[in-house]
Amino acid sequence: MDYDLQDDVQLLKNDKFRRLLQARFVGQTAQNAMIYALLILLVTESGSSIHSTLLIVALTLPSIVLGIPGGAIADMLPRRFTLTLGYLGRAGVAAALFYYSGDLFYIYMLVLVYSTIGQFFSPAEAATVPAIVRKDQLSAANSLMMLSLMLAQIVGMVVMAPVLIKLISPDAVFVFAAVFLVVATYIVGWLASDFSRTQDEKPPSIGFVDAMREGFEILRTNRHAYLAIVYLTTGLSLSKVLIILMPKFTRDVLEIAPEDTVFVAAPAAIGAGIGLLIVPLMIRLFGAWRVAAVAFFVFVLGLAGLGLVVFVRDFIQANFDFGISFLEDNFSLASVITVTMLLAVPLGLSFMVLSVATRVVMNEQAPLEAQGRVFAMQMALGDFLSLLPLLVVAVIADVVGVRATLLASAVSALGVAGYLTFSKRFGPQEPPPPSPEAGEARPVPEPGT
Fold this sequence. Notes:
The chain folds into two domains: about 10-195, MFS general substrate transporter like domains (Growth Hormone, Chain: A); about 210-425, Growth Hormone, Chain: A, CATH 1.20.1250.20. Helix content is about 80%, strand content about 0%. The protein has 16 helices and no strands. The protein has helices at about 5-10, 15-45, 50-75, 80-100, 105-130, 140-165, 170-190, 210-220, 225-250, 260-285, 290-305, 310-320, 325-330, 335-365, 370-400, 400-420. Helix 9 (about 225-250) packs antiparallel against helix 16, helix 11 (about 290-305) runs antiparallel to helix 14 (about 335-365) and helix 12 (about 310-320) crosses helix 14. The longest helix has about 30 residues, at about 15-45.
């Protein structure tokens, strides 16, 4: 395949893609700052940490109920209209959160409204990428979209929200978030001409029920799209389990304060950054679905490695060491912390590669007019499958230990993904063989067949 390195650079010269990227960064910065402020506000107002779990549930439930229909509706509406209205609606919710910040009931209702808007907005955003970039630029475009998400998490959760909460109050975050979301609305709604190609790609007239049925049909008949959904959904569920267990892991296994999760988060972020750099080349060399499959397997191994971190530490020290004993003796850095940091790098790298590669597969395999449905189904399935672990995984970890829970999660995920990969019951059906042409002799069956 001919490939010009300047192609990826040219993406940022694509006016529509650049503005989509800018709006995503500004909007996600606001969203991450809001979630951080809500976590602080709910615990402060209620005096109970149970409300942090209820907040995540409130953000998840609309996806389970409305995710798939939302994707079908997003495919039926102009993408620019959906994105503009979505950002504007979220800005209104942020402003309302400032007004009702002292009432827990209204906070949860507004969070539900915010998440409901996302069921139409998010599929439209994901489906916009293949509509405005060339097919050979999909891997680079999705990498940049993920990079903007990472940067927005850092700016929103690490910089913007903590500074505003410390200097003013959690309420101030909602005001700034509303302003940011209005800016994102302006970028998408008034600076971009349109997010649809004008050639022969106008979606056909299709009813709501038929639109949802067509989305399921794509997954039933396209093996690569089906596998992408399986690997991404399972990987996202595992990532949520890891997020829930990480404070307990740092306290019980690493024997450091839960707020010192930077020992895991920083190497994982470095790995994710490396993944963003290498994933476009990997996809071009090996194909997106192969890269996604390998990345999923490495991610599961990394999670299992955290569950077996003590045994991994002992094996490395007995056979390789890599200077681990030197760091422990001279810098008082516990060997189990060092091994955890080493494992976090491929963990972050593989998750980023998995996220980008699976989205490229879905961009490539799903028709342009059905992209929203496919992404909505992935989001709905991911949220549905992660809801039960989200509610019970911390309790299980208290009973059997956090390392055993991580190991069991990794083994279970590998078993489920393996079964769904090779199962003839759930996997896409092979197309029937073509019927013999008229006048062509049919093979005579052997006796006894």
